[in-house]
Amino acid sequence: MRDRNYLFNSVDWFSVDQHQRKELAKEIDSINGDRLLNSSVEDLCDYFEKKYKIEVPVLRPDNIVADQRETKIDVSGDPRRYFSNPGQPFYVNGTTVEISVPFEGNSEAFKIRPTSYTMNFPKAEIKNNNLVIKIEGTDLSADQVRNEVNRTISDIEGYLVTLRSNAQGLNTQIRSLAHAAIEQRRGKLLKDRNLLGDLGFKIKAREGEARTYTAPEVRRKLTPSLPAASTTPYKPEPTLANADYEHILSVIQSMVHVMERSPSAFTSMDEESIRSHFLVQLNGHYEGQATGETFNYQGKTDILIRSEGKNIFIAECKFWSGPKKLIETIDQLLGYSSWRDTKVAVIVFNRNKDFSKVLESIQEATKAHSNFKRQMTSTSETMFRYVFAHRDDPNRELLLTVMAFDVPT
Fold first, then answer.
1. What's the domain range around 370?
2. What's the pTM?
3. Do 156 and 204 share a structural domain?
4. For 371-403, how does the pLDDT look when each residue is reduced to its tens digit (9 = 90+)?
5. Do residues 36 and 182 make contact, with C-beta atoms less than 8 angstroms apart?
């Protein structure tokens, strides 16, 4: 049964599943090496997820459109009729009714035979984003047409339910498959260039220094197109190791706990004074390399940590004065983040305001920023982690943490 108007009868699901996986791996392997290294891994995963997932159609029977026309029908096979020339076509006047059922999704999915099926495949033509069900007869009635349409739609819906279940297994794996393949190839490319070693700058902590204020250790439908990226030779830039970034944030957060336990000592402090207390603690851990109001790239930053002459962490400290000011602070931070500054933070102090509402406003304003790409899992109710695009290069990603604290009044 290979009539092109029979749905779900061209290729079996297993073949489609294997084809998508193989093509995904093949495309990743074929991308220009420098372009792959210069592209954001998550942006690439977005592209592959959109391209290779199977978008099973959804019927919209509430928007059915009907049409009819007169046609000639061959009745030579009708046993109720007598023919003077048996075996020869014999046409009489009849009627064709066309029922157009709109759908959303990829029409190619109607060709896939799911893992569960019968040999009575439903029949319909695919025209644009409509399934056209044709019913012909010499003496059609409304009930007859309605029953035939309902039966056909019911059969199609049954196939789609099974196909949707089949596709879900593949669709939920595509991103992880792409991520693993991309990272594997990136690793090979870097190894081939003798640059696969540790690209992060480890910060030397003081030997034997008691971490008085350290928090507990944190366990570590358009056709898609590849994200734009340069194919110029890739040169990795040193960055702050994730473990050091988390530790810096934990020192800051622990200092706030001290403020909460001794509120009278901090009630009259301004931004500069509070920042100085953070710097004392950070320098206690990182050998005097944390500085305030230090020039960096195109502006000033409140907290800057340098290692071996390179800026590896920058942060801004601000009292909460509304979403607009937060956006300006993020702009300021992005403005003087150089190419190698990939981990940054905004520290927000709240006084005399509804803290719950401030936390909601922080999330809304941050995600509305033009450079926002995605939100990551938060480690607490008052700390939010985001991925931002660099101001000058959307493929260069910055990890931004917004930390909010209620300070005593």
1. 200-209+237-406
2. 0.60
3. no
4. 999 999 887 888 999 999 888 777 788 889 999
5. yes
